[in-house]
Amino acid sequence: MSSIQLQTPILEGGIRSINFFNGRLLSAEDLTQEAAAQQDARKRLGQAMGDGVASGLEVLPIAGAATKQNPVVTITRGLAVNRCGRTLALPVDVDISLVRPQDSQTTIQTATFDDCQPLQSGTYVAGAGVYLLTIGPASGNEGRAPVSGLGNVAASCNSRYVVEGVQFRLLQIDLSLNTLNDRDHLRNRLAHACFGTTDTGMQAFFRDPFNTLVDGYGLLDMLRPNHLTDCEVPLALLYWTIDDGIAFVDMWSVRRRLTSPATMNRRWSPLLNDRRLAEAEAMFLQFEDQIEDIRAREADAMANIEAAQRFDSLPPLGMLPVVAGGSPRGFDALTFFGEHASRDIAMIDANLLRHLLHEALYHEAIDLSAPDKIQLYTIFENVQALRAQQTYQLALVFASHALPYSGVARFGFARWDLSRFATTVL
Asked: Are 399 and 374 in contact (CB under 8 A)?
C-alpha cells in the first residue's frame, strides 16, 4: 500500500455536495443528492454529540381498569439522538397504545435512511412480561405537487413533502420464570442488569486491566444489534401483566442523557467513558423513582420494609423519607438498613451533600449481599426546617462506605445514635 503525501486531500468517504453555478441544468437527482449531503453533515454532528435523550420523552402510564388489557402510556414531547446521529423529535405529547389487534393490517412507515434498518413490526399480546419501549425514526409522504414531466408524462411520484417523524416499538425481554416470579426484586434486578453492575466482563477488566478489553456490557448491549438497532433510543422498561396491566414503568434503567461517544482509547474505556458517569446518574434517579412508587402505593407499609426485601443493589448514594420525631411517615432507618447501617447518623449540610453526590457518581453500587456498612446522614437544612415545622418529612441520606466523606468525624455537626434516632431528631 503506497503512502499518502502530507497536504494531499483525502476525499474518499467525504460529503459530496452539488456544485451550483449559473447555467447548470439541475435535476431531481441533483437536489436529492444535495439534501442527502446536508443530512449526512447533520448526522456526523449528531454522532459527535453522542446518543441519548436530550429532553422530555418521559413515559407515563395511564391508570384505570379499562387499560389493563389494552394498556396505554403517555409519552411527553421531547428530543433524542440515536447512535446513527439522527435526531428524533416528538413535538407534542402522545398517547401510545401498547397492544395492536392480532388481525391489524397497519403497516409501519420506516425511515428512508440507508443506515437505519426497518424496525420489527408485529403483534404484541398482553401477558406477564417485561418490555423495552424505544423511539425510532419514521417517514411518510404528504400532499401532491404539480408536475410537468418530460414529454408530458406524469411523474411516478409527485408527493409534495417527505416528512420525517418518529415511531415507537416494544421489544420483549427474555427472562427466566424465576426472575419474573420474584416481583419484589424484579425492578431492581432489571435496572442493575442494564447498568452492568455485576457484568462479568467489567469485573474481569478490574482483575486484569492489561489483558482485558471490554467491548460491551449490560442488558442493552446484549440486545444489540440483533434486536435493538442503533436507530432506536431506549425510553423505558415496562412490566406488564394480564391481571394488573402495567405494574411499573422504569425509565432510568434504560434512559440516558446525551452521552459522549466512547473514548478514543478502547482499552481504558471502562474508566474514562462518559457512559459510566451517565449510568451512575441514572442509577441514582432510578432508585429515587422506585422509592417514590413505593411511597405512592405502600405508604402505610413503608416502616416495615427492609432494603433486602426489594433491592439486591443500591446506588452509592441515595435519599430516603424516614420516620422520626416530627416526621410521622416514611421508612424506618434501622429496619430498612438493618445490620448494614452505621451506628451513628451524622449530619451534613447542603454544600457537602452536593460534593458527596458528585463523588458518589464515580463509585460502584452498594452490594447488599456484602457485609459492608452504609453511612447514614441527615441534612442540616432539612432538620432545621423540621424543627421549625416548615416541613414534616425528614430526609435520610445513605452513602457507600467507600466514599471519602463517609466518616462521621469529618463533620462538625450533631449526630444521633441509630437506636434512639426516631425520638431524638426533635
From this structure: yes
What distance in Å separates the CA atoms of residue 411 and residue 45, rounded to the nearest whole number? 46
Q: What does the pLDDT average to over 263-272?
A: 80
Residue 114 pLDDT exceeds 50: no
Backbone angles phi, psi at 312, to 5 degrees: -90, -35
Q: What is the pLDDT of residues 311-361, one digit of tens each?
A: 999 999 999 999 988 889 999 999 999 999 988 888 899 989 999 999 999
Nearest to 84 by CA among 223, 275, 228, 187: 228
Residue 85 burial by Cβ neighbours in a 10 Å radius (0-12, 13-18, 19+) = buried
DSSP annotation of 412? -
Task: Give the mean pLDDT of the chain.
Answer: 83
- Euclidean distance between CA atoms 335 and 347, whole angstroms: 20
* Contact between 403 and 356 (Cβ < 8 Å): yes
What pTM was estimated for this model as a whole? 0.85
Please state, in angstroms and rounded to a whole number, the distance separating the CA atoms of residues 144 and 118. 25
Tell me whether residue 389 is exposed, middle or buried, using C-beta atoms within 10 angstroms of its C-beta: 0 to 12, 13 to 18, 19 or more. Answer: exposed
| pLDDT mean over 73-92 | 94
- What is the DSSP-derived secondary structure letter of residue 347? E
Q: Cα–Cα distance between 306 and 320 in angstroms, integer?
A: 13
Dihedral angle computed from the Cα positions of residues 376, 377, 378 and 381, in that order, rounded to the nearest 10 degrees: -160
Determine contact, residues 168/88, Cβ cutoff 8 Å.
no
Cβ atoms 143, 112 nearer than 8 A? no
Residue 290 to residue 297: CA distance in whole angstroms: 11
| Nine cell digits for residue 417 | 445514635
Q: What are phi and psi of 28, to 5 degrees?
A: -60, -35
